[in-house]
Amino acid sequence: MSREPESQDPALLRRLLRAKDRMDAASHEDWPVRRLARVSNVSAAHFARSFKQAFGVPPHRYLLTRRIERATALLRDTDRSITEIAFETGWRSLGTFGRTFRDVTGDHPSAVRERARASAHALDRVPACHVSAAHRPHLTTAVSEKRRRGADDNIRPHQQEA
Amino acid sequence: MSQGIEVVGLYVRDQDEALSFYVEQLGFRVHTDVKNGGYRWLTVQHPDQPSFQLGLFVPGPPVHDAATAQTLQAMVAKGAMPPLVLVVDDCRAAYDRMRERGVEFTQEPVARYGVVDAGFRDPSGNGWKMIEARR
Q: Which of A22, A89, A100, A142 is least enclosed by beta carbons within 10 angstroms?
C-alpha cells in the first residue's frame, strides 16, 4: 500500500532545519529531543516524527552519524588517540563509540585510521575540499581551458569531414 | 566585460523579507525591482560586484503550479538548495557585524587549512559559507 506522504509546512521545516544546524554546529553536545524541540519551537512529541519525515533519519541517528563523520576526520587528520577522539566527539564510553562507529561505517576506528594513513598523501587535501574548491579559480580555469582546447582539437577534423 | 553570467537566482519564501535581509543585514544593494501583475523580478547586488546580480524569486505562478511551488518552498526551508559562497576580507569582523544585525549563523568563524570560514542562512533557509579571501 503506497500512501502519499502528507507535505510538511515550509515554516515548520525551516524551524526543524534550525535544530539540524544546531546539531551540526555542536555534535559533541547532548541533544535530547526536548532540547531540539525547543530549538524548533514544536512539542517534543511532534519533533522526532517531523524531523524524520523532513530529513529521512530520526534526530538521534542524525546526531550519531555527524559524530562519526567528525571522528573519522580526526582519525585521519590528527594523531590523537582513539579514546581522546571518542570523548572529543561526544561519547561517554569507548564501547558505545566503537559499536556505533562499526554500525555506521562497517569498520573499526583503528582500521579506518590505518587505511587513511596508508593513502595519506592522496587524502591530504580532502577535508578542506569544500573551502578549497571555492578557492581554486586558477586551477578550474586551467582545466576547462585544456578541456576546451581538447574539444576544439576533436571538433576540427570532424567539421572537415562534414 | 560584455559576456558572462549576469543573474543567478535564489528561491526565497518572501521577497520583502529577503530584500530586507540581503540589503539591511548583508549590505547588498537593490539592482532591479519590478512588478508585472503578481510577478516580481527582484535582484540585488554586492556593492563590489556591479556585473553580477543575485535574483530573489518566490516559487509560484506563472512559472510553477501549486504543487511544484510547494515542493520548492519545502526544499529551500529544509536547507536542500545548493551552497552559496560569500568572500570577505575579514571573516571574524564580518561575523561580528552581521551577527549584531541579527544574521542567523550556523557556524562561527573557524580557521582551518589556512582559511577562516563561517556559515549562515538567509531567513528562507538558503545556506551561505563566508570565506576570508586569501591575501
A: A142
